[in-house]
C-alpha cells in the first residue's frame, strides 16, 4: 500500500487496508481467505481503472508531483550498473539539484544526467526541490562535452518544477547557462535520449531536454510554466485557476505526443509509477534499450540533421503578411 494519497485516490484507501489486514490475519494460519481476497482485489482493480482512466490535467499534474513517485536516484539505482557520480562545474561549485556521472546501461557505457528532487524533507531541502542553479546546468554541460570526447551516449532524466529563480542564480547567469546548454545539445555529436519521469517545468527542464528521442512517462507533465504560475498570470489567482490552466496548457503526455513534442508515451502501472516502482523500471528499461539501439545504428551526420529538424518542426506559425 502506498504511503500518501491524493484527494482523488482516497476511495482506494479502505479497500487497500482491508486487503492488507486480511493478508496479515491469514498469514501462517491453517485457514485461508483466498476467495475473499480475490473478490476484494478484483473490486480494487475495477475502482482503480475507473479512477485512473478519466484523469484531468490537474490530477495528472498531482500524480507527476506525487511524493512517493520514483525519483531519478531510484532509476539510477535499479537500472544502471557501476554509477560514478561526478561533481562540480569547474567554475563556481556543485549543484545537488542535478546529478550526473558515468554508468553502464545494458552493458554499454553511458553518461547520465538527471534532476533530483529528493525523497524526504531533508534531501528535498538539500536538492533545492530539484530546481537547479546555473552551476547545475554548467555541470551538465561539462558532462555532455565529456561524453562527446569519449563517444558515449547521453541519457537525461527530467523532473523539475523549473530552474531556480533566486537572486543568486540570476547573478551567476541562469538564462545564459540554459541557453548555452540548448545550443550545445543541438550540435552534440553523440546520441541523446531524454526521459520525462515526473515534472518537466519550463527552461529548467529543456536545458537537459534537447534529445534525439524524448520519452515521457504516462502520468508526467512537460510545460513552459506550471498551472499555478499560468493561473497567477492570466487570472491573477494561482489556486482557483490552476485546474483550468492545467487543461489549457496541454501538458500531459497524450497532448504532447499529438503535438509532436515527444516521441513515445511510456505506460505506467495502474495508478501511477509510485504504486509499482519496480514494474515501472522494467517497462522504462525496455523502451530505453529499444530507442538506444536504434540511435546507435544511425550515421552521426544523419542523427544531427534529424535532431535539428525535429526541434525546427515544433510549433505552428501563421504569417499574416504586411497588410
Report on the architecture of this protein:
There is one protein chain. The chain has 2 domains: 7-54; 61-312, 2-enoyl-CoA Hydratase, Chain A, domain 1 (Alpha-Beta Complex), CATH 3.90.226.10. Strands 1, 2, 3, 4, 5, 6, 7 and 8 form an 8-stranded mixed sheet that branches. 38% of the residues are buried. The protein has 323 residues and is an alpha/beta fold. Helix 1 (11-26) runs antiparallel to helix 2 (34-52). It has 14 helices and 8 strands. Helix 9 links the parallel strand 5 and strand 6.
CATH third-level topology of the largest domain: 2-enoyl-CoA Hydratase, Chain A, domain 1
Number of helices: 14
The CATH superfamily name of the largest domain is 2-enoyl-CoA Hydratase, Chain A, domain 1
Identify the CATH architecture of the largest domain. Answer: Alpha-Beta Complex
Structural descriptors:
alpha/beta, 323 residues, 2-enoyl-CoA Hydratase, Chain A, domain 1, 8-stranded mixed β-sheet, 15% strand, 47% helix
Short description:
The chain is built from 14 helices and 8 strands.
Map the helices and strands.
Blueprint: H1 11-26, H2 34-52, H3 57-64, H4 72-79, E1 81-85, E2 98-105, E3 108-115, H5 121-126, H6 134-150, E4 154-160, H7 167-171, H8 174-187, E5 192-201, H9 202-206, E6 213-217, E7 221-223, H10 227-234, H11 242-248, H12 253-258, E8 264-266, H13 277-296, H14 300-312
Helix pairs in contact: 1-2, 3-11, 6-8, 10-11
